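With this grant's support, we have settled on a layout for protein records. One resulting record is reproduced below.
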Amino acid sequence: MTHEALLEKLRQRVGETRGPLVRSIEAGALIRFAYATGQTHPRYFDKSLGPVAAPTYVSTFCADAIADLIDLDLGLPMFLHSDDVAELGAPIVAGDEIRATARYVDAFAREGKRGTMLFQTAEMILVNQSDAHVATVRVSAVSF
Protein backbone atom coordinates (compact mmCIF):
# COMPACT_ATOMS: atom_id res chain seq x y z
CA MET A 1 0.00 0.00 0.00
CA THR A 2 1.36 3.47 -0.86
CA HIS A 3 1.99 6.13 1.77
CA GLU A 4 -0.86 8.16 0.29
CA ALA A 5 -3.28 5.22 0.63
CA LEU A 6 -2.12 4.55 4.21
CA LEU A 7 -2.58 8.21 5.09
CA GLU A 8 -6.08 8.25 3.61
CA LYS A 9 -6.95 5.11 5.61
CA LEU A 10 -5.71 6.80 8.81
CA ARG A 11 -7.53 10.08 8.11
CA GLN A 12 -10.81 8.17 7.84
CA ARG A 13 -10.36 7.24 11.52
CA VAL A 14 -10.28 10.85 12.77
CA GLY A 15 -13.07 11.20 15.33
CA GLU A 16 -13.09 7.50 16.29
CA THR A 17 -13.51 7.12 20.07
CA ARG A 18 -12.88 4.63 22.87
CA GLY A 19 -14.26 4.50 26.36
CA PRO A 20 -15.23 5.46 28.82
CA LEU A 21 -12.78 3.45 30.86
CA VAL A 22 -13.62 3.86 34.56
CA ARG A 23 -11.07 3.18 37.27
CA SER A 24 -11.40 3.49 41.05
CA ILE A 25 -8.21 4.88 42.52
CA GLU A 26 -6.74 3.05 45.50
CA ALA A 27 -4.22 4.54 47.91
CA GLY A 28 -1.91 1.51 47.59
CA ALA A 29 -1.73 1.89 43.80
CA LEU A 30 -0.76 5.55 44.11
CA ILE A 31 1.91 4.77 46.70
CA ARG A 32 3.37 1.91 44.62
CA PHE A 33 3.49 4.18 41.57
CA ALA A 34 5.23 6.91 43.59
CA TYR A 35 7.89 4.45 44.80
CA ALA A 36 8.34 2.98 41.31
CA THR A 37 8.87 6.41 39.77
CA GLY A 38 11.26 7.70 42.43
CA GLN A 39 8.97 10.32 43.96
CA THR A 40 10.10 11.85 47.24
CA HIS A 41 7.40 14.36 48.21
CA PRO A 42 5.40 13.16 51.26
CA ARG A 43 2.04 13.99 49.64
CA TYR A 44 2.49 11.00 47.31
CA PHE A 45 2.82 8.60 50.27
CA ASP A 46 0.77 9.96 53.15
CA LYS A 47 -2.56 8.12 53.43
CA SER A 48 -3.92 10.88 55.68
CA LEU A 49 -3.54 13.31 52.73
CA GLY A 50 -5.22 11.06 50.19
CA PRO A 51 -2.52 10.27 48.98
CA VAL A 52 -2.23 12.46 45.88
CA ALA A 53 -1.10 10.87 42.60
CA ALA A 54 2.21 11.93 41.12
CA PRO A 55 1.59 13.99 37.96
CA THR A 56 2.85 11.22 35.66
CA TYR A 57 0.25 8.81 37.05
CA VAL A 58 -2.08 9.90 34.23
CA SER A 59 0.12 7.88 31.86
CA THR A 60 -1.15 4.65 33.48
CA PHE A 61 -4.47 5.16 31.69
CA CYS A 62 -2.98 5.43 28.19
CA ALA A 63 -2.54 1.76 27.32
CA ASP A 64 -6.14 0.88 28.17
CA ALA A 65 -7.87 4.08 27.08
CA ILE A 66 -6.00 4.58 23.81
CA ALA A 67 -5.64 0.87 23.01
CA ASP A 68 -5.90 0.23 19.28
CA LEU A 69 -6.69 3.85 18.38
CA ILE A 70 -3.17 4.35 17.07
CA ASP A 71 -2.41 1.82 14.36
CA LEU A 72 0.85 0.12 15.36
CA ASP A 73 1.15 -2.02 12.24
CA LEU A 74 1.13 0.02 9.05
CA GLY A 75 3.54 -2.36 7.36
CA LEU A 76 6.38 0.16 7.54
CA PRO A 77 9.75 -0.90 8.96
CA MET A 78 9.90 1.57 11.86
CA PHE A 79 7.40 2.66 14.53
CA LEU A 80 8.17 5.21 17.23
CA HIS A 81 6.05 6.51 20.10
CA SER A 82 7.12 10.07 19.51
CA ASP A 83 5.35 12.37 21.90
CA ASP A 84 3.13 12.70 24.97
CA VAL A 85 1.82 16.09 26.03
CA ALA A 86 -0.21 16.35 29.23
CA GLU A 87 -2.34 19.24 30.45
CA LEU A 88 -3.08 18.61 34.10
CA GLY A 89 -6.16 19.75 36.00
CA ALA A 90 -7.53 18.56 39.34
CA PRO A 91 -5.19 16.18 41.19
CA ILE A 92 -6.02 12.49 41.40
CA VAL A 93 -6.48 11.33 44.99
CA ALA A 94 -7.23 7.99 46.58
CA GLY A 95 -10.93 7.29 46.45
CA ASP A 96 -11.46 9.07 43.13
CA GLU A 97 -13.30 7.39 40.31
CA ILE A 98 -11.58 8.45 37.10
CA ARG A 99 -13.30 8.23 33.72
CA ALA A 100 -11.08 8.17 30.63
CA THR A 101 -12.28 8.69 27.08
CA ALA A 102 -10.06 8.75 24.02
CA ARG A 103 -10.36 10.02 20.47
CA TYR A 104 -8.26 9.66 17.32
CA VAL A 105 -7.54 13.28 16.42
CA ASP A 106 -5.03 13.52 13.58
CA ALA A 107 -3.04 11.79 10.86
CA PHE A 108 -0.55 13.52 8.58
CA ALA A 109 2.62 12.92 6.57
CA ARG A 110 6.00 14.65 6.52
CA GLU A 111 9.11 14.02 4.53
CA GLY A 112 12.12 13.00 6.62
CA LYS A 113 15.69 11.87 6.00
CA ARG A 114 14.47 8.28 5.47
CA GLY A 115 11.46 9.19 3.33
CA THR A 116 7.80 9.71 4.14
CA MET A 117 6.85 9.61 7.80
CA LEU A 118 3.22 9.00 8.85
CA PHE A 119 2.16 10.62 12.12
CA GLN A 120 -0.89 9.71 14.22
CA THR A 121 -2.27 11.46 17.29
CA ALA A 122 -4.86 10.39 19.85
CA GLU A 123 -6.17 12.41 22.77
CA MET A 124 -7.30 11.07 26.12
CA ILE A 125 -9.44 13.09 28.52
CA LEU A 126 -9.66 12.19 32.22
CA VAL A 127 -12.38 13.48 34.54
CA ASN A 128 -13.16 12.57 38.13
CA GLN A 129 -16.44 11.60 39.79
CA SER A 130 -17.39 15.29 40.06
CA ASP A 131 -16.77 15.77 36.31
CA ALA A 132 -13.75 17.94 37.12
CA HIS A 133 -11.07 17.91 34.41
CA VAL A 134 -8.13 15.84 35.63
CA ALA A 135 -5.98 15.71 32.49
CA THR A 136 -5.85 15.85 28.74
CA VAL A 137 -3.07 13.72 27.26
CA ARG A 138 -2.14 13.83 23.57
CA VAL A 139 -0.17 10.80 22.39
CA SER A 140 1.62 10.82 19.05
CA ALA A 141 3.40 8.14 17.08
CA VAL A 142 5.28 8.03 13.79
CA SER A 143 5.80 5.20 11.30
CA PHE A 144 8.39 5.35 8.51
About this structure: The first strand starts at residue 17 and ends at 24.
